[in-house]
Amino acid sequence: MDIMLFSNGQLPGNTKPLEYGLDWIEGVVERTGVKKLVFIPYAVIRASHDDRTKMVQESLGRFGCEVVGIHQAEDPVKAIEEADGILVSGGNTWVLNKTLHDKGLIGPIRKAVLKQNKLYIGWSAGTNIGSPTIRTTNDMPIVTAAVLPSLNLIPFQINPHYIEASIDGHMGETRDERIEEFLLVNPHEIVVGIPEGTMLHVHDGHLHYYTANGKPLKLFRNQQEAEYFNADDDIQFLMEHSC
């Protein structure tokens, strides 16, 4: 099993999706031998799905991979079944999760990743849906969708694009305060904040943290002081969490 969950798709100065994490991806591609990847761009709102597919192909084509957009497939379920791996773009998590449910793709994706050991690479919204639910997304519910359960590839909640900051003059809640509210209502959950340029990788059940810029992940528990973990720290205990 290989599940790669990136906080975001690009860093400043990058021109291609996942450019900062291509070395990490290359190692997995070489080890697994994946060639055909199905790309799910449903979260993309302000750009063409075809254009985004082309951009991802340009990023991963250097490894000999073929990227096929699921939106172009006559049978999306068959496209997942025939692929060696699954790529899921960032964008709006609500739209993405609703579309996956509407098209009956939650079960097939879970089967492909958890039962057939197909590679899963997601970023931003594509990482949000790897959690049991999308309740810790930063995105606005721009569609009428009360569907919260998602792929449940990992047993804890993720907050991608995590930023530990207060904006001068901004009187709304900080990210930490929003996560604190979530945990007060859901005290048995945990939330992992992963900042820009970072990635969580599950390989054969073992969890590792990668960072392109040295930023640590931040672990939130209800009514406990948050903890920081770096790339070399053991975070396997997160995979043993149950709510």
Automatic annotation (TrEMBL):
Keywords: Hydrolase, Protease, Serine protease
Record-annotated membrane-spanning stretches: none
Pfam families in UniProt: Peptidase_S51
SUPFAM superfamilies: Class I glutamine amidotransferase-like
GO biological process: proteolysis
Gene Ontology MF terms: serine-type peptidase activity
Family: Belongs to the peptidase S51 family.
Protein name, UniProt field: Alpha-aspartyl dipeptidase Peptidase E
